[in-house]
Amino acid sequence: MADSPQHRLGELMEASNPAFEEVMSCVFGIEDHETRAYLGLCERPGSTIEELAAALDRDRSTVTRSLSTLRDRGLVRRDRRLLDGGGYVYQYTALELPAAKELLHEALDAWTATVHDVIDEFDGTER
User: Fold this and answer.
1) pLDDT by residue (tens digit) across 9-46?
2) Which residues 6+ apart lie within 8 Å of 76 measured at CB?
3) Is 76 helix (H, G, I), strand (E, B) or coil?
4) How far from chain centre, in Å, is Cα 72?
5) Which domains, and CATH codes, for the chain?
6) In 3D, which of 16, 33, 24, 22 has the Cα closest to residue 104?
7) Hey, what's the torsion of the CAs at 63, 89, 72, 12, to 10 degrees?
8) Where is the Transcription regulator TrmB N-terminal domain positioned along the sequence (predicted)?
9) 122 φ/ψ sector (left φ>0, alpha ψ -120 to 50, else beta)
């Protein structure tokens, strides 16, 4: 991932049985609507913004912002397709789910290692 997302793991830890969507939103630091956009693209690879907005019943500008965030997180790629009559359109494809799951595992493992280091380094003195 290009940018390190802000983790909302505290929220995740409060849930006894979180849904996958909650885990994804918290770990990647994305909003629920962005997670829905990612999952929508998993079902409809190669969608345009207009197609995804219609499928999700969302405003085009909301979907555009969601896709921008997802691209920043490395979860979506954008490809330019030339149109027969001239011009082009962007098509979006989600990172395949197994690869996204691997990113989730890596982010959680890194966070866990950091927490273990904090625990191990604590000596009882004030900072």
Assistant:
1) 666 677 678 889 988 998 888 999 999 999 999 999 99
2) 38, 41, 67, 70, 92, 93, 94, 95
3) strand
4) 9
5) 9-121 (1.10.10.10)
6) 24
7) 30
8) 25-82
9) beta
Rg of the chain over all Cα atoms, to the nearest angstrom: 18
> Which tokens go with 65?
């912002």
Q: Which residues contact 101 (CB under 8 A, 6 or more apart)?
A: none
What whole-number distance in Å separates Cα of residue 23 and Cα of residue 109? 14
Structure tokens at 13: 């830890």
The CB density around residue 75, as the number of other CB atoms within 10 Å, is 24
Among the listed residues 107, 112, 98, the one whose alpha carbon sits nearest the alpha carbon of residue 27: 107
Q: Which two tokens stand for residue 8?
A: 């909302």
CB 22 within 8 A of CB 37: no
| Residue-wise pLDDT tens digits, 96-114 | 999 999 999 998 899 889 9
Residue recorded with tokens 């006894």: 16
Residue 55 CB coordination number (10 Å): 15
